[in-house]
Amino acid sequence: MSYAPVDNRASTYSDVHDYYDAIPAPHRLTGTFASPAVTPQGSFVDINNSPRWSTAAAGSSSGMYAAAGATPSEEDVGDKEWIGGAVGGDPQGRSAARLAQRRNKEGASYAAAGSGMAGAAVAGNRRRGWKRWWVIALGVLALVALGVGLGVGLTVGRNKSSASGSKTGSTTTTTTTDGDSGNSTTAFTKDARLHNSFHAFAYTPQNVLLPACGASLANITRDIHLLSQLTDKIRLYGANCNQTALVLQAIQDSGVDMRIYAAIYVDSNEQAYEDQVAAVESALKTYGTERVMGITVGNEYILNAQSAGTPAATATATLLARIAAFNATQQGWALDRMLPVGTSDAGSLMSTTLAAGIDYFHANVHPWFGTVGIDQAADWTYNFFQEFDVDVANSVPNQPPCAIAETGWPTQSMTTTEANNGVSGSQGDASIANLQTFLDTFVCAANANGTDYFFFEAFDEPWKAQFGGVEPYWGLFDSDRNLKEGITIPQCSHT
């Protein structure tokens, strides 16, 4: 089996290599340690000895609804290895080692991408393509604005209480209807400042950290009320703390039109993996598959492996074996349909080997970590995603669909030394003004040219303060679910 190596061109940005070096490893999660050392120390589980792996028969695994049981040919797939980073209570897999690796590995390929990637001609052509679609998008928006203006002119005399654009915003209390039963469900107040303009959002519910947990239906329902006014799709990062069932219940109770990508986080904690598999099975058998678009096995698994010194080819082979085994497990659930199974990882780590064994790929593409100025961020994100992910996926027979798993811009930093990504001046600042620029230049243009993406993210996450820098501050809303002052949600349609 061939392996297409990732781009290893050296970064010219020293901050990419030094950003997280001083951050200690996060706290321990049952039997597994996270360590910033090249060879982590602690008690590690051999993930190749999972009881679920033995259910996979030999065979091939590629394409939509991949057949179970593919066993990658890399000879070291059976080696005992640490695939970690997520320990320490982070459902998104963020640890000190993982963040350092994100700065180092993604930074290197990001730097190359930002300077033209495969060549100035290719980058120039793609930029022109992006701008062409952006012009089309502006034209559509102009027509929409004209229609809205006419509508306002006709109705303003009858209703003088229209949205004022104030800090609190206009609200409308709406009783929604469950599309399946026709019964009224939860009534909630809609915010006139919010618009359903985003293709999708990355979402981590509050309090889904092991071992404590503490996620509540009330809090998740509150989040669904807000998210449903911005998008109709979300992706989860794992299944700990019953989050899959809670999210599906909240969607059902709210009567909103939303779908999800369920997820199973993969690291060296085998019991946590088994518990997540069981939780996803229970949720799907309780709520059905109608609102589930796929199941993402692993979040930055390969990136985390590299931070521990494991070669990308080895980590890729191990992950594909895990996915094949999970497909066999899913077949045994006897659901009404087989759900696509994919993975999410750094955008720089897509390979033909990985693409051939998955049903879809979600790629993290962060202009902030690529040391890109905000004036170039939207264009750069599109170009990077096309070359490092879409083009690779399209080069294999099954051509798994790709989406950007995370992209966004932070609004502040815990320290002034980390409040700029390395670009001189305000173009590299973590600020509300720069997040607004990214919203204005990326969202509607991506919708217009058919780029699927999960915006990162809706809400600030204070628990990420343990990782330092900008990590807690990527939300459109603060942690109390208040839309950040100075943020205006773009208005456009999406798929």
UniProtKB/TrEMBL annotation:
Pfam families: Glyco_hydro_17 (PF00332). It is a single-pass type II membrane protein. Signal peptide: none annotated. InterPro entries: Beta-glucan_modifiers, GH, Glyco_hydro_17. Its EC number is 3.2.1.39. GO terms for molecular function: glucan endo-1,3-beta-D-glucosidase activity. One of its GO terms (biological process) is polysaccharide catabolic process. The chain crosses the membrane at residues 133-154. It is found in: Cell membrane; Secreted, Cell wall. Residues 159-184 are annotated as: Disordered. It catalyses: Hydrolysis of (1->3)-beta-D-glucosidic linkages in (1->3)-beta-D-glucans. The keyword Magnesium does not apply. One of its GO terms (cellular component) is extracellular region. Its main location: membrane. Keywords: Carbohydrate metabolism, Cell membrane, Cell wall, Cell wall biogenesis/degradation, Glycoprotein, Hydrolase, Membrane, Polysaccharide degradation, Secreted, Signal, Transmembrane, Transmembrane helix. Glucanases play a role in cell expansion during growth, in cell-cell fusion during mating, and in spore release during sporulation. This enzyme may be involved in beta-glucan degradation. Active on laminarin and lichenan. Belongs to the glycosyl hydrolase 17 family. This is glucan endo-1,3-beta-D-glucosidase. It comes from Naganishia liquefaciens. The lineage of its organism: Eukaryota, Fungi, Dikarya, Basidiomycota, Agaricomycotina.
